[in-house]
Amino acid sequence: MTSLLANFRRWQFWLTLIGLIALVIYPNVASSYLISLLTEVFVFAIFAMSLDLLLGYSGLSSFGHAAFFGLGGYILGFVARNWTANMFITLPIVLIGSALGALIIGFFALRTSGLSFLMFTLAASQMFFGIAIKWTAVTGGSDGLSGIPRPTIGVGDTVYRFGTGFQFYFVALIFFLIAFWLMRQLVHSPFGRALIGIKSNEARMKALGYNTWRYKMMAFTLAGVFAGLSGYLFAYFNRHVSPETFYWTTSGQVMIMVIIGGAGSLTGPALGAVLVRLLPSYVSSYTERWHAIMGLVFILFVLFAPQGIIGLLKKVGRVSNSPNEP
Amino acid sequence: MTQLKADHLHKDFGGLTALVDVTLEVKSGERRAIIGPNGAGKTTFFKLLAGEHIPTSGRVYFDGQDITHLPVHARANLGLSHTFQRNNLFFDLTVFENVRLAVQHHRRLAWQMFKSAGSYQAINEETEKILSQLGLSDHRQQLARHLAYGQQRSLEVALALATEPRALLLDEPTAGMSPAETAEMAKFIESLPRSLTMLIVEHDMDVVFSLADRITALHYGQVIAEGSPEEVRSNPMVQEIYLGTQSAVKRHL
Amino acid sequence: MPLDILVIQLLNGLVFSLLLFLMAAGLSLILGLMDVVNLAHGGFYLFGGYIGLTMIRWFGSFWLALLIAPLVAGALGLLLQVWFLRRLQSRHLDQVLFTFGLALIAADMLRWYWGAYVESVPPPPELDGSVLIMGRQFPVYRLSLIFFGAIVGVALMVLLDYTRIGAIVRAGVSDSELVSGLGINIDWVFVGVFVLGTALAALAGVAAGPITNLYPGLDFEILILALVVVVIGGLGTLRGALLGSILVGMTETLGKAFIPEFSLFVIFALMALVLLVRPRGLLGQKEA
Questions:
Q1: Do B90 and A211 touch (CB under 8 A)?
Q2: A177 CB contacts (<8 Å, ≥6 apart)?
Q3: Top-confidence residue, C88 or B226
Q4: Which of B113, B145, B152 to mutate to probe the A interface, most A CBs <10 Å?
Q5: N or C: at which end does chain B have fewer Cβ atoms within 10 angstroms?
Q6: B115 vs A189, A208, A210: nearest CB
Q7: Which residues from C are below 8 Å from A290, CB to CB?
């Protein structure tokens, strides 16, 4: 059994290495369209994993996660158009801005639990949407903010400009890897275990002395920060941010990624992001009705495979690995 | 020295009165049992001490500090721990993880966000120690929900002990256990350090009379008798209430 | 501000409040009874409105539309409840996820069939025209909606408070196990309430058509407001839904009239305030 596990670990290591090499080679051989597709996948994978911190790990059913995705994008849009596109400056501003947004929303949302929490978070994101549409002077109204400059990085006069899609691909890849690694550390840390404990049985956590409210606030804030980061990257990527980023369908899309991939594992939602962002480009004849098809697939997963693809894989793996298990 | 004190506790639920003017003092290191027939208010009283209910009037003190309105987690952090009448575990986590959650909080490491939980040797060792004390070592990788009922009951107590409380509130620790398991659990509770203050709500009179230093009897939400096991046993009111209903008590009377 | 404008706006607010109440009542009852937020509720509203529009186009009768749309939506609700939601009965979050998927499908399908443009709905000719209120024109249709909403509202209250079925539903809201224990088939109570809720949403969709028009996105606009109503009023209580509807309806109407950029923010602030003071809503008994 232990050797099997060790084998699996080694296998996983090699797979990761090969995957990384492939991701580095990919933009050198792929067309610019395919490069931009994968860039988008990285961005949405961060977004999906951040929602999973709430949905899969803490048991907080947030249905308005787009609030922070949009917030990250709009803050970047505002700063980059009015001041600078230097990531050394824009990144901390966006991270702090999303954290503050999440703290404020979380403060009220966590007064409630369960369904009220769900309704509150959904309503909160729609409120952001409403403001983005109507507060034209700052948000550009329904057109959003366009003409966001390409990102730069540097201090003083030594400034590097990520001018092409090829270069931005690597920006997104690096952010994805860092975010994945940070969240992975987080969910395996004592803090992450505590979140799982809260999802499993909050009353017992309180009896053990955990101030569960603080843990949930922290989880909500961290998830908001990572969602803000993905929205930030998305705005740089499109050089545009629109009210759509706040809209409920955006929350819906990321929710679908998490559920289809499998909540409670970071790889699942990342996988979900791959499927949800890539498939529509390949099944072009269906793209017209893409939302309906996604909704349908989503419903099928909810009905028949609530653990998502990761859950299905685990089931298959368990069957083939240990046929004698009762 | 008084460690736990209930001062004129009164609890109404809507129009129903569950507890009337209950006053009680438990000394440090004392083992106190609360007995009474069903509906006597034992569970309500327990929940007022544990912090799951707030009394309608009256106060609760722990080490002289007024904790009447303190939330559950704050009481636990003061060293007042409690178990649940119905097993209240992390059913979808392993036995090891159940206990580790308690240990990592007690060791003040639960806010660590970066290193893997498994890399904290101190947490691992203490978790193992507690598991072996309760005979759960062999089941460490099992999900709590897959344990036998008696083992779940042990885990219930293990979680409360893992926070190293100074006072432990036990709500029917042997509820639903087989006679053999009950005896084992009683022996285990008996073996806990004498310095640990305990308050036990318990139906099994064998357990009560073998463990308790003092006994308080509740009836219709009021204290009707309090004293050493012998005194309570010979109290005419207690005898009257239990006569003919609970054979276990009669045997002891 | 001149008094006449204020009065007119208050009347508009009342109209909108009552429409919201029709939406929120079903949402709240389903929530209280089945522990499910029906996120497709806005979809049923818009679906009802569009069905009504088509009925008016086909048969030229608003009244027929008002009758048919709730029936069609109710029938659809029946099928969805019996075929799917029931399968997920013990998995509350999955039920909500299911309705979320449904909302996505509905939004797309409605856009597909009825188009992405704003469709206006003519009011019934009998109620076309306006009356003078404090020297200002006020549409007769809106005025009659106040009466219509009030009648439906009172009927609902009577149904819930004074009939045996209502008593069962109320008992189910506070404790569904208890109801099963009485030998009542709770499954059919669920079905009944779900169908009633969807039919009410469709009814509101038709009735509101001449005022709000119909367009993609209206489903979630109205759903969000109804959710806020339920959070403010409390889960599973009709009186809470009524109180919440009036608060939200008035705030929305007055907010839109005087600070259009932040009308949603004001409603949101109202909800946050209520949560601070009473996390279970103004008249709520039950924790979500």
A1: no
A2: none
A3: B226
A4: B113
A5: N
A6: A189
A7: 108
**With contacts defined as CB-CB under 8 Å, which chain B residues touch A178?**
none
Q: Is there a single domain that holds both residue B185 and residue B209?
A: yes
Residue C232 lies in a domain: yes
- B130 in the same domain as B158: yes
Q: Place C283 in a pLDDT band, splitting at 50, 70 and 90.
A: confident
Q: Which ranges in C115-215 belong to alpha helices (H)?
A: 140-162, 164-174, 176-181, 186-212
C9 inside domain: yes
- Among all residues of chain A, which has the CA nearest to that of B51? A207
> Looking at B164, B199, B220, which one is the last position of a domain?
B164
Hey, is B85 helix, strand or coil?
A: coil
Domain count, chain C: 1
Q: Is residue C273 part of a domain?
A: yes
CATH code where residue B220 lies: 3.40.50.300
* Domain termination site, one of B107, B133, B164: B164
Pairwise CA distance, residues A192 & A199, whole Å: 11
The answer to whether B200 and B34 are in contact (CB under 8 A) is: yes
> Which chain B residues have a beta carbon less than 8 Å from that of A196?
93, 97
Q: How far apart are CA B154 and CA C85, in angstroms?
A: 39
Same domain, yes or no, for B93 and B50? no
State the nearest Cα–Cα gap between A76 and chain C, in angstroms: 21
The 10s digit of each residue's pLDDT in C141-177 is 999 999 999 999 899 989 888 888 888 888 877 777 7
Number of domains in chain B: 2
Q: State the residue range of the domain holding C18.
A: 3-277
Query: Nearest CB to A206: which of B72, B90, B92?
Result: B72
Q: What is the ipTM of this complex?
A: 0.89
Which region, left, alpha or beta, applies to residue B39 given φ > 0 means left and ψ of -120 to 50 means alpha?
Answer: left
Q: Which two tokens stand for residue A45?
A: 């994978």
Q: What's the rounded mean pLDDT across residues C114-130?
A: 88
Q: Which domain holds residue A111?
A: 31-246
C1 or A44: which leads in pLDDT: A44
Q: B81, A207: Cβ pair inside 8 Å?
A: yes
Please report, for residues A66, A122, A243, B225, the alpha-carbon distance to residue A127 in angstroms, rounded to integers and kept in the order given: 11, 9, 11, 61
B160–A contact, CB cutoff 8 A: yes
B175 and B251 in a single domain? The answer is yes
Q: What would the 3-class secondary structure string for C24-35 be? A: HHHHHHHHHHHC
Which residues from C are below 8 Å from A120, CB to CB? 231, 271, 275
Q: Which domain holds residue B148?
A: 88-164
Q: Please indicate, yes or no, if residue C282 is contained in any of the structural domains.
A: no
Q: Are residues B252 and B176 in the same domain?
A: yes
Question: What's the gap in Å between the CA of A195 and the closest CA on chain B?
Answer: 10
| pLDDT of B135 above 90 | no
